[in-house]
Amino acid sequence: MQWKSVYDDQPNAHKRFMEKLDARIRNHDREIEKMCNFHHQGFVDAITELLKVRADAEKLMGQVSDTNRRLQDAGREVTAQTEEVIRCRIQQRNMATTVEKLQLCIPVLEMYSKLKEQLESKRYYSALKTMEQLENIYIPRVSQYRFCQIMAETLPKLREEIKEISMSDLKDFLESIRKHSDKIGETAMRQAQQHRTFNSAVQKQVTLSCAKPLYGLNSRTPLNHNGLSAEATDEEEMDEEVLTAQDLVDFSPVYRCLHIYTVLGDRETFENYYRKQRKKQARLVLQPQSNMHETVEGYRKYFNQIVGFFVVEDHILHATQGLVTRAFTDELWNMALSKIIAVLRTHSSYCSDPDLVLELKNLIVIFADTLQGYGFPVNRLFDLLFEVRDQYNETLLKKWALVFRDIFEQDNYSPIPVENEEEYKSVVSRFPFHDAEIEKQQFPKKLPMSQSVPQIYAQVKEFIYASLKFSESLHRSSTEIDDMLRKSTNLLLTRTLSSCLQNLIKKPHIGLTELVQIIINTTHLEHACKYLEDFITNITNVSPETVHTTRLYGLSTFKDARHAAEGEIYTKLNQKIDEFIQLADYEWGMSESDGRASGYLMDLINFLRSTFQVFTHLPNNNNDHAAMSGKVAQTACMSACKHLATSLMQMLLDTELKQISMGAIQQFNLDVMQCELFASSEPVPGFQGDTLQLAFIDLRQLLDLFMVWDWSTYLADYGQPTSKYLRVNPSTALALLEKYVLFLLFPSAQC
């Protein structure tokens, strides 16, 4: 309250406060003075004592300084040694630490050095394993060091480098096998061909000797007569000769790359890349050269490349796990097979040489056998061979068409002369000719057929042999081969030979004599057909009595050719008659006849007589031949007479002929009489009665009507079956009558 009052707003309050404060200060000063006076003596005593001690302290200080100096001098060496010890201890500790750390780092460095060596020696798979150990085991122990961090950062880059290098090696490998596919395929196909040849030889040995089976139970391992494997007996030789894909190509880049990508966890990428590249290579391999069909080497190279490709794939399939799968190879094969078949269809169609087609077939068989040995299905290839067989047959037919054509062109179309027994045997050894009458004749003698017959027969047999060559190694039964041979032979006879015969018959230079010889030839060839069937039967050992055995159609071929030749004889006879008729030069306004037949007609009749004498050469050594030759001669003679009668009638009724005199009719009558005399002289034996003369009956009745001028009888008996002029047509008689009347009315007019 007192202090508060100081600040109260009272008059002189501050002054009173200051006075009281001064008074209090004075009181304290007095108390302090009292206190100092009370302790002063003690202070003085203490000062005195301190002064006494000062001298001792100075003395002691000197002693201490001296002792310190001496101690410092003595401890300086110890301190130096102690510092040296401390420094050594620090170095020792550092060295121990360093050694300890180095012991941790050295394995890392050693592994990294090992990694570098592996990379330099291209042992990438081992390098990846080393990287894995570095990352998982060694580097984590010393990860605090910078060099380890750098090392850890380098490892992914090294992995990428390894991937790139291994991929580059894989690309080189793919390029290498693309180049070596030809050689690999050639080796594989050669081995397959050797194996097939060996099996064929063993099979022939089995056929020749049935004492012991030459095959084991699996029908794959041939045995020799000692019961040992035939392959085992030649094992050393085979070991020296047999080469595999692995012998020709280094597959290590594939294995290495596969392992690398597997370790890197990127196997799927590698598999996809490999399969994609192989598909591309397959398409390239399957692309043929444009001129492949020109030589067998083109086909062989094509097949070698394909076989090489799939041999490599088969090796990869079995040597790696999952890089390629059976499904993948089957997909590739199916794609390739479709392409191969399409290519072969196209290129084989260009082949015109049967030898080339046959070699192509052999290549396809070896190609199929080779790939079948690696487990690829090849049934479609053997089906393709049936198409190639048709192409082969077509080329054979074209080739034999030229052969037949040459034979026909070189033939002289005259009977074969044989001077002695040796020549006779030479002919009958080439052609099955047997004739008891001819055999009894003395040499020299003539065989009825011409030289082309045995040549044609021999060439048909050659064709059968050529066709048989294609059937070899097709894994077909004897019945199927027999059917193939018969069908191809039928095509040869019914198409090729038939066409050649038809063309031959139609040739302008083939005369009546040649046509007659062709008829004789076809007759003998027809009889030889049964020997051709026996020939095929002997080759195939298939009985002709088999239900499904195809018969040869040669009989119809040669019959058709004979009929064509006969028809051509009739046609050529008529053409020759027309040529003689064109030489006729009647004087239609003559007053009376010359009293003898026209010269052209006599020449024509003489020609016909000599011509029909040729028909005596037709085969007539048995009843069938006699009947045939008589029929041909009779038909030809009847056809000639009818054509001659028709031509003469047309001459009379020609619209260009306006007038005709009785003298001309009489001359014409003399010519017709000569025709009738020719018909009645039996130029060809076998006609009954006046059958041949009836060809001129129309002319005879017409001319008699005008010569006798018996119009009353004609008109009275017209339409009666017993009419004397039954064959005279009213329009014909009227036309001739008009010409005669015009002559009477206008005798000076031109005829």
Q: What's the topology here?
A:
Layout: H1 2-6, H2 13-120, H3 124-138, H4 146-208, H5 230-233, H6 235-241, H7 245-248, H8 252-263, H9 267-285, H10 296-319, H11 326-348, H12 354-373, H13 379-410, E1 416-418, H14 421-430, H15 436-440, E2 445-447, H16 452-471, H17 478-506, H18 512-540, H19 554-582, H20 599-614, H21 623-652, H22 662-680, H23 697-708, H24 711-717, H25 730-745
Antiparallel strand pairs: 1-2
Helix pairs in contact: 2-3, 3-4, 3-8, 4-8, 4-10, 4-12, 8-9, 10-12, 11-13, 12-13, 13-16, 13-17, 16-17, 16-18, 17-18, 17-19, 18-19, 19-20, 19-21, 20-22, 22-23
Main beta sheet: strand number and arrangement?
Answer: 2 strands, antiparallel
Oligomerization:
single chain
Order of helices and strands: HHHHHHHHHHHHHEHHEHHHHHHHHHH
Helix content: over 70%
Radius of gyration: 64 Å
Strand content: under 5%
Strand order of the largest sheet: 1-2
Amino-to-carboxy terminus distance? 197 Å
Structural class: mainly alpha
Tell the overall outline: rod-shaped
Query: Which regions have little confidence, pLDDT < 50, spanning 5+ residues?
Result: 207-240, 620-627
Number of strands: 2
Number of helices: 25
On the 0 to 100 scale, the average pLDDT is: 82
Function: Component of the exocyst complex involved in the docking of exocytic vesicles with fusion sites on the plasma membrane.
Family: Belongs to the SEC15 family.
Organism: Cyprinus carpio carpio
Domain Exocyst complex component EXOC6/Sec15 N-terminal: 20-189
